[in-house]
Amino acid sequence: MNNYTSIIVPAYNEGERIKNTLNGIIGIDEIDEIIVVDDGSSDNTESEAKSVKSEKVKVFRLDRNRGKGYALNFGIKEALKNADIIGFLDADLGSCSSEVIKLIKPVLDDEADVTIAQFPRAKKKGGMGFVKGLAKNSVLEMTGVELNASISGQRIFKREVIERFDEIPYGYGVEVGMSIDILKWGYRIKEVLVQMTHNETGRDLKGFIHRGKQYYHIKKVVKQKKKEWGAK
């Protein structure tokens, strides 16, 4: 297997963090290309990304905010021009983005077809338990496989897995929906413990609204997957 690796970084209003995130991964030899998709940001995300001095970094800007799913699909089209391995990384990781090497290695070594980052426990209470519980139980119910990090957006894929998708689902249920499909197709998913942190959602109104949206989207995508796979 060849090992040209492309990392897709969808970014929306991450001007404060995107540069550190990119600087954390540009020096990783196993990464050949970093595709930043600025999802119509209203801040300086695009210029900050372009200021990173590396030939690996390619920055694209969408005409308006279209959502993470659209940004990922855009990035995948670019990555498939060259890549044998494709990864997703969030733009708000900062320097701990370097931990992505722990996700890349098992795919390179054919220990897994897909790897998912399993984060340490959140430092502040965010009330994420019911969302994570729904995601974990839904994947287990449909596939018989227990995943602890099924909502994690930090993932590495073999090209053949990505090519099975007509397009990446939209909305906050994208990761759960993909996990179900990947396992149903018979591919191997490996969760990898990483020392990553990101901009955590708190227990304020904005945080609860975000988690409510996540819950709704996961329920919706699981219902759709049950219909597609003929599960009750």
From TrEMBL:
It holds the Pfam family Glycos_transf_2. GO terms for molecular function: glycosyltransferase activity. Belongs to the glycosyltransferase 2 family. The keyword Disulfide bond does not apply. It catalyses: (2R)-3-phosphoglycerate + UDP-alpha-D-glucose = (2R)-2-O-(alpha-D-glucopyranosyl)-3-phospho-glycerate + UDP + H(+); an NDP-alpha-D-glucose + (2R)-3-phosphoglycerate = (2R)-2-O-(alpha-D-glucopyranosyl)-3-phospho-glycerate + a ribonucleoside 5'-diphosphate + H(+). Its EC number is 2.4.1.266. Gene3D superfamilies: Spore Coat Polysaccharide Biosynthesis Protein SpsA, Chain A. It comes from Peptacetobacter hominis. It is an enzyme of class 2 (transferase). This is Glucosyl-3-phosphoglycerate synthase. It comes from the Bacteria. The lineage of its organism: Bacteria, Bacillati, Bacillota, Clostridia, Peptostreptococcales. Signal peptide: none annotated. Its cofactor is Mg(2+). Keywords: Glycosyltransferase, Magnesium, Transferase. Residues 6-126 form the Glycosyltransferase 2-like domain.
